[in-house]
Amino acid sequence: MKTSKYIVCVYQYKCYNLSNMEKDFEIVDHTADVGIIAYGADISQAFANAARALFSLITELDGVGEFLHQDIELTAPDEESLLVEWLNELIYLFDTENIVFKRFDVTQLNNTQLKARSYGEKVDSSKHRLKTGVKAATYHMLKVDKGDGCQVQVLFDI
Which of 154, 150, 116 is nearest to 42 (CA)? Predict the structure, then answer.
């Protein structure tokens, strides 16, 4: 994975030197909500890592198998809206079909369209401890940055 060579400051008090980091995402606390910052060598990888970050809020990913998959196709007016729609579709599938996802292959992504396959399994209370109830991805403080490497930021209602 290509690492970024710049410093990012989050909420004006936490700064990270990304040139020394090789992580997919980080969780950021926010008043009454929770946020994520996901990184990628390209925008597809950043979107996939944002989805992994979402499900890491919901459960421990190590315990999730890849026994089923769900194909997802979305359109939206711009990349920021597409990111929110993507994450909210995954939350919808978790809420309605009781599926936790672990791996995400974003096969097509442009400014207005996304195609992806998500891998996971049905929630099993004997092996999945649900941690956080995530209601929705929001537009508050939403960012899609395609500088040297890609970075996306999203806040979730919990």
Answer: 150
> 33: closest CA among 151, 134, 148, 126?
134
- How does pLDDT run across 67-82, given as a tens digit for each residue? 999 999 999 999 999 9
In total, the chain counts a number of residues equal to 158
Query: Is residue 7 domain-resident?
Result: no
With a CB cutoff of 8 Å and minimum separation 6, the contacts of 11 are: 28, 30
111's tokens: 């400014």
Q: Is residue 31 part of a domain?
A: yes
Please write the tens of the pLDDT for every residue from 73-120.
999 999 999 999 999 999 999 999 999 999 999 999 999 999 999 999
- Specify whether the CB–CB gap between 53 and 38 falls below 8 A: yes
Beta carbons of 39 and 151 less than 8 angstroms apart: yes
Range of the domain at 50: 24-157
Q: Which residue matches tokens 């996901």?
A: 38
